[in-house]
Amino acid sequence: MLIESPPTVQLSVWVNSLKAVTSQRLRHEFLDWRGADGKAVLWCAVGRG
Questions:
Q1: Looking at per-residue confidence, does 1 or 37 come out higher?
Q2: Residue 19 above 60 pLDDT?
Q3: Most exposed: 5, 11, 34, 36, by fewest CB within 10 Å?
């Protein structure tokens, strides 16, 4: 991803904002991804063999 911004914008702040917006949109789009306690459940199991 290539972004262009003024030098006053901190990259870490921009990335955190992007992550927050992405998370909100995913939770809104996939409302049925709720655990037993009502919290969103997004996980990936990785096995070693």
A1: 1
A2: yes
A3: 36
Question: What span, in angstroms and rounded, lies between the C-alpha atoms of 11 and 14?
Answer: 5
Please compute the mean of the pLDDT values over residues 20-26 and round it to a whole number. Answer: 88
Domain extent listing, the chain: 11-49
Residue 34 falls in which region: left (phi positive, over 0), alpha (psi -120 to 50) or beta: beta
Secondary structure (H, E, C), 2-49? CCCCCCCCCHHHHHHHHHHHHHHHHHHHCCCCECCCCCECCCCCCCCC
Q: Residue type at 32?
A: D
Residue 15: HSE in the Cβ half-sphere, 13 Å Cα cutoff: 5
